[in-house]
Amino acid sequence: MIPRDAGETLKKLSKDYPVLVITGPRQSGKTTLVKSIFSDREYISFENPDVREMAISDPRGFLNRYRDGAVFDEIQRAPDLLSYMQQIIDENIRPGMFILTGSQQFGLISGITQSLAGRSALVRLLPFTLREWYGKNINVPIDQVLYSGLYPPIHDRKLDPNLWYANYINTYIERDVRQLVNVRDLNTFQRFVRLCAGRTGNLVNLSDLASDCGITHNTAKSWLSILEASYIIFLLSPYHKNFNKRIIKTPKLYFYDTGLACWLLSIQNYEQVNTHPMRGPLFESFIISEYFKSSFNKGLPGFYYFWRDRSGNEIDLLIEEGGKIRPVEIKSGATLNTDYFKGLQRFTSLASDILEPTLIYGGDDSLSHSGITVTSWRAI
Is the pTM here over 0.90, yes or no? Predict the structure, then answer.
């Protein structure tokens, strides 16, 4: 198995909390990881209909079999167990008793908040980080990384990304979407997901999304929440403290995995990425998702934002660290030019308490330029 950065976090948290919750998108490696780390625990999957029926019909009797703890996979399929689990934990509280995994935030997070507050620790596991799969010596072009994405099955089983993502999105829509909300027309929902891919790196405009998809504004808002809850997309919030009153307050939309976004954009091989009009937003989405993965693997939420004023000045990523701000500009081009630095220079003239302004670009060299740290995508 490929070692995961989140593994050390889970080992540490299992010594302090009676319940560990590992959530993330389907096929991100949650089951493989918990089976590897907690191989001494009995493993129960609620994807099994018989097991799920026993847990739902007699939760007390079911949990009595596992008073010493267990790994419960896809716990969101039997959410009522969380309430009954609290009593067992309080009677004999021990670190690392129950290991729970789930691929949906809806229900799971609220159930933990209500029943297991103070007793559980949460870790979000996304697909591989760049470093986890490729290591320190990355010898593939960035376009190939963007096209293939970083879902584990594609790489460890050497699958065709085009075919895998097609099956993934169909399975996701058929199973998870039907569980979360009553979507009568699945083709319309898939068109909605494709429209979201075409808006990667852009400000969210629900009215336009609804109009282009032929649905209501409220439906578009609900469907966007479903994609968030299933770790398909994330919304990057704007930062609006002190710098300028005339700022944009709408979030930006990104995909956690660019391979999935490429499939939704009908990109059929990595050579097409190079000339595609969405290459820049895809690169930006890739870099920002790597930051989120880094925080999630440590069990932290990640304090990430973007900044844009109404004059068009913008910083792609702001990282809040101890009351200070680290501005990060992201450019997909492999050749540095002076325009790449204008946003950072403008921002540093407006804001105080700045930490190491950084430019991440599509080239290979890392260096320093006029007080700005220039970092190759290969070295993030």
Answer: yes
